[in-house]
Amino acid sequence: MTHEQLIAAVTQWFWNTFPEERRMLYAVNNNVSAGLTKQQQIIEGNKNKAKGVVAGVLDLCYICFDGRCVYLDAKVGNDTLSPEQRDFCSKLDDRGIAWFTFGSVDEFKDILNFLRDG
Predict the structure, then answer these.
(1) For the chain, how far is it from start to end, CA to CA, in angstroms?
(2) What is the span of the domain harbouring residue 109?
(3) pLDDT tens per residue, range 54-101
(4) Is residue 14 a contact partner of residue 112, using CB atoms and an 8 Å limit?
(5) CATH number at residue 64
């Protein structure tokens, strides 16, 4: 399963499992689209930068019932946090904001159940 497929699978599972919470889990658009030419990637990257998109923000944000904001990031295979992501997570830690990584739909479900059940 690719990174994009994993994110699609977990967001679809969430949407269908918790319809009352739709829009409380959302993707952060911080990746330049694959499949573009190098020039198109540069153009899209510059547009995103101008709009405030920054590298390192984790893939998903979940707003819990108690008002907490939790960030989640998909990691497939040997993928690890980038230096920018480590910096972002350090800043989340400094602010007391929780974050998690997951490598499968089942791991994501476990995290969501933990967050929802306390």
Answers:
(1) 29
(2) 3-29+56-117
(3) 888 999 999 988 889 999 999 999 999 999 999 999 999 999 999 999
(4) yes
(5) 3.40.1350.10
